[in-house]
Amino acid sequence: MKKIQQYSNLIKRHAKRLGFLDCGIAKADFLEKEAPRLESWLQNNYHGEMQYMENHFDKRLDPRLLVEGAKSVISLSYNYFPEEHQQKDAYKIAKYAYGEDYHHVIKNKLFELLECLREDIGEINGRCFVDSAPVLERAWAERSGLGWNGKHTLLIQKKQGSFFFLAELIIDLELEYDAPFTTDHCGKCTRCIDACPTEAILPNNNIDASKCISYATIELRDNIPVTFKDKMEDWMFGCDICQDVCPWNRFSKSHNEPLFSPKSPMLEMNKRDWEELTEETFKKVFKKSAVKRTKFTGLTRNINFIKEK
């Protein structure tokens, strides 16, 4: 029992050293409560054209199907709230995409964390996950005591708000497990619901992703539906509206990750600059960015949809 506690403390110390905001640990088990919610969400087609959400249903609910002999799910958060923001007269990019692609930045840190554990503890079988595999990250973060799921379905922490990434390390080592977060501190507040211009945020902490501006500007490969017309509020890649209005984000502090700093001249560009964007400039500004996912053609499609009245 003492070794289990020592291992758990060791993991959290390494996580802190690597720059993670917080670290919580939960027992690798079947997510019984989330199963009917996920099934209902898919049946209602709230995932739109994100067909990959229908794949690996069982794996999404049971981490032991992802890692043989899995005993623990380590959930970690990593701050991305920027010190500087785009100018007001600009088409907007979600803050998480200001710098380098978080998938690579955080996954490298997870690999380093896993190697540190192997050096200090011994052979450990495990896998690293950063928003790119069938893992219900918010459910595990809540189970690990990191925070609660807000009405906008994003995880919120009292001292940090919600501008952070989530990542997981699933390993075959038994650890000391943190108490799950069970209190919803959103209360009667409905600011995120009221502010969403497309009414994508539904009751009971649910979201219709097919109505979300982030979905329309990133996930959707076809033309943006006319139902989004005049509702984009100048968001050309992703959307932060529900987070920007959340009272808990008054506690957000600027990150200190150099790789998340925006490349020049992104913050200085106004609407005209974006409308005149060339593919060459796109490749330069977003060389290692998550914005590359939508490609130059996708970003220009979004800009043209917004500006055409």
Automatic annotation (TrEMBL):
The active site is at D131. Gene3D superfamilies: 3.30.70.20. Its cofactor is [4Fe-4S] cluster; cob(II)alamin. It catalyses: epoxyqueuosine(34) in tRNA + AH2 = queuosine(34) in tRNA + A + H2O. Signal peptide: none annotated. One of its GO terms (molecular function) is cobalamin binding. Keywords: 4Fe-4S, Cobalamin, Cobalt, Cytoplasm, Iron, Iron-sulfur, Metal-binding, Oxidoreductase, Queuosine biosynthesis, tRNA processing. It is found in: Cytoplasm. Residues 177-206 form the 4Fe-4S ferredoxin-type domain. Cob(II)alamin binds at R60, D131, L155, L166, S214, C239, D240. InterPro entries: 4Fe4S_Fe-S-bd (IPR017896), 4Fe4S_Fe_S_CS (IPR017900), QueG (IPR004453), QueG_DUF1730 (IPR013542). Monomer. HAMAP family: QueG. Catalyzes the conversion of epoxyqueuosine (oQ) to queuosine (Q), which is a hypermodified base found in the wobble positions of tRNA(Asp), tRNA(Asn), tRNA(His) and tRNA(Tyr). Belongs to the QueG family. This is Epoxyqueuosine reductase. The lineage of its organism: Bacteria, Pseudomonadati, Bacteroidota, Flavobacteriia, Flavobacteriales.
